[in-house]
Each structure stands twice: as structure tokens, then as C-alpha cells.
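stage 2 :: seqdesign
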């Protein structure tokens, strides 16, 4: 099985250096907004697009692109699942899956088609015409076709985007299970937060053709490194603040008229007087009826007024005014229990470890300028 993918890819707006430990992270998500360069990077890895001079792509000890080197797509042993599935309408399901297996003897080809269809959960579709397949069935057949040549690396470009919403929801968990069962390192392109959370082990965030952060799914979504990443991963509340001090390893941050406590584990170099961005996930905001804080309750208790309540899937998004804008998610039973409505007075409770601090861009630029200045002395 492939172990390490290293890529230095330049093409159009894309300028990315990426190293992935495929053995430790079976599924890596390339994540970012539309136009970030995700599909371009995927196509360069597959050999479908040729990167510009100065690029270098290698899987383990086999170089695919580099000075004087360009291995064509057909020789990379890469499985590719296109966004629109791209099944051949004139071929049966079995014919589609067998398309890339012409070099195998007939008996081995038939066995490999059966194995790939079984791995993709589509064995029952073998003799069907592709014209009558549902979106979910077509996706499984396209996955089987990508798996059939026994690739060293599997690349999926927005694999669920062509499906209707109910089918997409149903197949998320199935796709994760199928990918792990196949045992082939996989890179998935998506701009959908829910898909990234459901499918990936690690994530690489691309914005405007640049790689901004890599890490585990939990780390990047809950502790974005920059304000750009915070926006890309949908951090609901990003607030301007200033550190006023530290007590027992907990940063005290002035946000509007309130002091917010944050366990400053990610940015220990920040000091009193530094401007920061305070990030709070709506999932980490608990709402309580106003009253005295309990000894076991979170460190931050902020008096709030509900300004709006909006359905968001199975939950309700609650917008709050706490002297600054804050967002929480609650269940419908919680709304009824607290009798929430616009104008309701509540307490927003947030644990200190759930408050993430990002150095304000101006602070980062100033630190870089100071380092540069020291270098010239």
C-alpha cells in the first residue's frame, strides 16, 4: 500500500506544497471554497493535467512529475471518480467496471469486476444498463470502476455533489465504510463541511490556490490557524478581542464589554495587549435560563438576548446579542424547554477550552516584520 504522497504543484493560480502520510490517514479531504484549486490539484495528481515547470509529484519512491519527468495517467495506477460519475451509457454496469481491465485475461477480468462491484456495494447491479441507474447506484458503479484496476491511490472529485440531498445524506456513511473496506489510500475533494466531517481522517484546506492548514478533521475545524480557514470551515462566531492577562494558564480576553476566558493552548506566545480573533463554534455554546452560575458550569457565562431563531436541518440556529454577535445551536425540545423566542433573555455558557484564539492578522504581520528587522541587524 502507498505510504507517502509528496506534491509541489504549480498550475494557473495553484501553488501548493503538500505531504501526506497515507498510511496513517486512510482518507484525506481537500477542502475549500469553489475556485480554490482543489480539482486542479487532484487532476495534476492523477496525471490528467500537467503542472507547470518547477512542480514535483511523487508517490513513495516513484516520481510522477519533475524535471524531465511526466508519467501519463494510464501508468500511475490511480483510480479517479469524477464528479458526474462519467459512466458509458452504451455499456452495462459490468462493461463499465471492466473498461480499464483489457490487459487482464478474461477469467481474471470477470473475477476482478465481481470483486470491485462487491467492494462498492453494487454486486446486484452487475447486469443492469447504466441508463436506468439512480444517482446513488451510479455513484457505486463509478466507485467500482475506479477500484477495479487495484489502484495504489484513489482520487474522488466531489463524489456526492451530483446526488439529491436525501441520497447524499444516506450515502455519506456508506461511502466512508466502503473506502475503509477497500483499503486504498484516498483523497476526496469537497467544499461541503458535513461531507468533510463524515468522510475524512485528515484535511488540507485550500483557499485561493494556496494551502492554508493541514491536520486532523477535529483540529482544523475546531482550531483554525487563520481567519481565512475559520471562514472556510464555517466557524460561526469570529470576534475581535484583546488579551488583558493570563490566570493559571487561562487567557483573559476583552471582547466588547465582556471578558472571555480561553484556554490558550494553541497560541501560547500571545501576551497581554495582543489583538486576537476569538473563535467559538455554535455547537459549543449552551443556553441556560438566567440565574447564578453553578460551580460546575463553564467558565464563560454571558447574558444574552435572542435576536433570531432559524431552522438548520434537525437543529435550530439561535442568534444572540451578548454585546457582540454570538450563535448557538439547540434542539427543538430545548427551544420548548427554555421557551426561546426573539427577545428572550438567556445565558450563553461556553467552556474555556472551546474558545480558540487566532493572532490578529496585524499581530502576525508585526511579528514577521520584527523577525525580518532582527535578521538585518
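stage 2 :: out
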Amino acid at each position: 500500500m502507498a505510504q507517502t504522497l509528496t506534491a509541489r504543484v504549480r498550475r494557473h493560480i495553484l501553488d501548493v506544497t503538500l505531504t501526506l502520510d497515507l498510511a496513517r490517514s486512510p482518507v484525506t479531504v481537500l477542502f475549500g471554497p469553489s475556485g480554490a484549486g482543489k480539482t486542479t490539484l487532484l487532476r495534476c495528481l492523477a496525471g490528467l493535467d500537467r503542472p507547470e515547470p518547477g512542480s514535483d509529484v511523487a508517490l513513495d519512491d516513484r516520481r510522477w512529475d519533475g524535471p524531465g519527468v511526466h508519467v501519463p495517467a494510464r501508468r500511475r495506477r490511480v483510480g479517479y471518480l469524477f464528479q458526474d460519475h462519467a459512466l458509458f451509457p452504451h455499456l452495462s454496469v459490468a462493461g463499465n467496471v471492466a473498461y480499464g481491465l483489457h490487459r487482464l485475461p478474461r477469467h481474471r477480468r470477470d473475477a476482478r469486476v465481481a470483486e470491485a462491484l462487491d467492494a462498492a456495494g453494487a454486486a446486484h447491479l452487475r447486469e443492469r444498463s447504466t441508463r436506468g441507474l439512480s444517482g446513488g447506484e451510479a455513484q457505486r458503479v463509478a466507485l467500482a470502476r475506479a477500484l477495479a484496476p487495484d489502484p495504489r491511490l484513489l482520487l474522488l472529485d466531489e463524489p456526492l455533489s451530483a446526488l439529491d440531498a436525501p441520497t447524499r445524506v444516506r450515502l455519506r456513511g456508506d461511502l466512508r465504510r466502503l473506502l475503509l473496506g477497500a483499503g486504498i489510500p484516498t483523497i476526496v475533494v469537497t467544499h461541503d463541511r458535513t461531507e468533510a466531517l463524515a468522510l475524512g481522517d485528515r484535511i488540507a484546506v485550500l483557499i485561493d490556490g494556496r494551502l492554508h492548514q493541514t491536520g486532523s478533521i477535529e483540529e482544523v475545524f475546531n482550531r483554525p490557524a487563520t481567519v481565512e480557514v475559520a471562514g472556510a470551515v464555517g466557524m460561526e462566531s469570529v470576534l475581535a478581542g484583546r488579551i488583558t492577562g493570563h490566570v493559571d494558564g487561562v487567557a483573559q480576553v476583552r471582547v466588547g464589554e465582556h471578558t472571555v476566558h480561553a484556554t490558550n493552548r494553541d497560541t501560547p506566545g500571545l501576551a497581554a495587549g495582543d489583538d486576537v480573533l476569538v473563535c467559538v463554534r455554535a455547537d459549543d455554546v449552551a443556553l441556560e435560563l438566567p440565574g447564578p452560575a453553578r460551580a460546575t458550569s463553564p467558565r464563560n457565562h454571558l447574558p444574552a438576548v435572542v435576536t433570531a431563531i432559524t431552522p438548520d436541518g434537525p437543529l435550530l440556529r439561535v442568534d444572540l446579542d451578548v454585546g457582540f454577535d454570538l450563535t448557538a445551536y439547540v434542539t427543538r425540545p430545548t427551544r420548548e424547554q427554555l421557551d426561546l423566542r426573539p427577545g428572550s433573555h438567556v445565558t450563553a455558557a461556553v467552556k474555556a477550552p472551546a474558545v480558540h484564539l487566532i493572532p490578529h492578522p496585524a499581530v502576525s504581520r508585526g511579528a514577521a516584520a520584527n523577525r525580518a528587522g532582527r535578521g538585518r541587524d
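stage 3 :: structure notes
- The radius of gyration is 25 Å.
- Confidence is low (pLDDT under 50) at residues 363-377.
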